[in-house]
Amino acid sequence: MGIVIGSAVYPLWCMMTDDRASAQGALTAAWVGQILAVGAWLLLAGVYMGGISVFNLGNNYVMLGGNLVALGSSFAIMQIQMLTKPDNYDWKSMGEIKLLEDDRSGLSADDLDPEELLKAKRWIAKAGWGFTLLIVVIWPVLSTPAGVFTKDYFAFWIFIAVIWALVASFIIIALPIWESKDQILAVFDGIFHTNLCEYYNPETSKAHKLHTAAAAAAEPAKAAEPVS
């Protein structure tokens, strides 16, 4: 997967956060990076493993080489483009995009504040680089003194990896649900005619208010129906 789509990672980041990035630079970095990555993958399988086959292409070192070329080449191409021919985008046209439905019920004032968005960008950059440093440098360095892993050391290493994956999975699954709880409860209210949204959030969402208004409007119609 990394060999095929890894070259799009850095161009996408630049397109969302760096005013120097251009569409031409991002497209060039993504496509050229992918071609170079696939070429390096095949070349390493032929040279390092002695031939191209399904087994050789699945070798960890061969795949690692292809992934590194995908990330590294696209990074280099984007840097060259931004340094030699910066786009100097002002972000105004992005803010002027007309939405089909201008529904901002899920957004707070901070979500629309440029200063808060810049703070979020800086936090994401620090967290991303910090996580990369931890995974690429610190973790391997801490494992180096062990040399060849013993059975117990390897079990401990796997235990940490499993716990990491479980915690990350929980956060990835649970946090979006929690952040969207008002919208989820509003939909639940509309389907099952409950008041959960009002119970958890006194300032009920727009969807819940619309459901309540529709239910109130339907009451006189029901009362006027003849009884058989």
Please, could you describe this protein's structure?
By secondary structure, the chain is an all-alpha fold. The protein folds into three domains: 1-89, no CATH class; 115-146; 182-220, no CATH class. The protein contains twelve helices and no strands. It has helices at 2-5, 9-17, 23-48, 54-57, 60-84, 92-95, 109-112, 114-143, 151-179, 181-192, 196-200, 206-224. Helix 10 (181-192) packs parallel to helix 12. It is extended and about 80 Å long. It starts with a helix and ends with a helix.
Number of domains: 3
Rounded mean pLDDT is 84
Instruction: Output the radius of gyration.
Output: 26 Å
Mind summarizing the main beta sheet?
Answer: none
Which features characterize this protein?
single chain; 228 residues; mainly alpha; 3 domains
Any chance you could write out the topology, listing elements then pairs?
Elements: H1 2-5, H2 9-17, H3 23-48, H4 54-57, H5 60-84, H6 92-95, H7 109-112, H8 114-143, H9 151-179, H10 181-192, H11 196-200, H12 206-224
Helix pairs in contact: 2-3, 2-5, 3-5, 10-12
Write a concise synopsis of the structure shown:
The chain has 228 residues and is mostly helical.
